[in-house]
Design goal:
By secondary structure, this protein is an alpha+beta fold. It is 48% helix and 14% strand. The strands form 3 sheets. The chain has a 5-stranded mixed sheet. A 3-stranded antiparallel sheet has the order 1-3-2. The chain has a 3-stranded antiparallel sheet with strand order 4-6-5. Helix 14 (322-331) links the parallel strand 10 and strand 11.
Length: 390
């Protein structure tokens, strides 16, 4: 098992693999010089890591790249995908370590990571060394994030990817949601309840017709209501409880939606899942991505037992430019078009009228996790809608 642990941090491997973007083979001495080492010994751990991941092969006097390695050189999206697969592969990768960390909950210490590594190496020195390298790899794949000795984890949400969540019953969520929407007279144009489809549609139309400088409160109101008709709880301002780490933006562009877990669970450290939403009328820039990440970190600092994910919601169908796209991909911040949320409200009305199973918050989170796992950070509205119609 020890021979499966990376020997260098991910950026060092990326730097090495960039040399193979335009060639299939490099002499060992030339490779060392290109990496600014005196001889091959200096770059041997880089190469060994590439071999462990199935990217490179070593010959007597050269290092050759193989097909998987060529994919790795094609950019960040491919790198994240290959690293994620390696970290979750129980046969050829470090899936057993990932499973161990998954059982530690949503927050744990560096010593707990070292403990999971120690199970597969001989000495405590090796465990500490490999654990320090692994944190970097898990952060690259957006599975863990480190703040000093504390580590936040999203690994327990891997259950959503398999559609086998231990935390929620979709049937129970659907039943409660149907009861709530019926009580709100969701399908009534004469009801004064804020969660009727008619009121949601009017809010959306008001937003679309408002001047840009006046539109954000309507956008916030609309998005909040759509998440609520899926069964999420939503909040966008401080209440009587003054949480020290949580500060909603003054421009009305921060929205927290939560699907709390209220039943018994095999993992009592998990209180539910949440989306930290950054709302922008027009474009999702790099700044918007950074604001979503900051907001998510604030939420997590205040509610460490929540699984928190940042998203950006705008009136556009994708991020503003390549800079924002690259930053969003590295930070795993998905963009959601506002158009999709309106179409989602219409889909919910259709399902409600026909007496079908409703679209629940769990359905939304499972879709989100599938897209996140596939590194699809800019899903288009029609594709999102088709996924939920199934």
């Amino acid at each position: 098992m020890e021979n499966k642990f990376p020997r260098v941090k991910i950026n060092q491997l990326i730097r090495l693999m960039s040399l193979f973007a335009s060639t299939d083979s490099v002499k060992k001495d030339r490779l060392a010089k290109a990496m600014r080492y005196i001889n091959f010994t200096g770059v041997s751990n880089h190469v060994k890591t590439g071999i462990i991941l199935g990217l490179l092969e070593q010959n007597d006097d050269s290092i050759d790249v193989i097909s998987q390695g060529k994919k790795f050189t094609k950019g960040l999206e491919h790198q994240i995908k290959l690293v994620s697969e390696f970290l979750t592969d129980n046969n050829e990768g470090l899936g057993v370590v990932t499973d161990c960390l998954k059982n530690e909950g949503v927050q744990f210490g560096f010593s707990d990571l070292q403990k999971c590594v120690q199970l597969h190496v001989d000495t405590a020195t090796q465990a500490k060394k490999y654990a320090d390298i692994l944190v970097d790899w898990y952060q690259f794949a957006s599975m863990l994030s480190r703040n000093g000795d504390r580590i936040n984890s999203t690994l327990s949400l891997m259950d959503f990817q398999l559609g086998q969540s231990f935390l929620f019953s979709n049937t129970a969520l659907d039943f409660k949601l149907y009861m709530d929407l019926t009580a709100a007279e969701f399908d009534s144009a004469s009801s004064l309840h804020h969660l009727t489809f008619d009121s949601i549609e009017k809010t959306y139309q008001t937003f679309m017709g408002a001047a840009p400088q006046d539109s954000e409160p309507y956008m916030l109101d609309f998005v909040s209501r759509v998440f609520q008709i899926l069964g999420f709880s939503a909040i966008f301002s401080r209440g009587s409880r003054k949480y020290g780490n949580l500060d909603f933006g003054s421009n009305g562009d921060d929205l927290l939606v939560v699907l709390p877990y209220t039943g018994r669970t095999i993992d009592p450290s998990i209180n539910g899942v949440a989306l930290a939403c950054e709302l922008k009328r027009r474009i999702g820039s790099k700044t918007a991505v950074a604001q979503a990440v900051t907001f998510a970190n604030q939420v997590l600092a205040e509610f460490p037992k929540l699984q928190v994910f940042p998203i950006v919601i705008t009136g556009s169908d994708c991020y503003h430019d390549e800079i924002a796209q690259t930053y969003a991909l590295s930070s795993q911040v998905m963009h959601i078009p506002l158009e999709f949320l309106f179409e989602l409200a219409k889909l919910q009305l259709e399902k409600y009228r026909k007496g079908k199973m409703l679209v629940t918050a769990l359905d939304f989170m499972m879709l989100y996790i599938r897209l996140r796992s596939a590194q699809q950070i800019e899903p288009r509205a029609p594709d999102l809608l088709d996924s939920l119609k199934l």
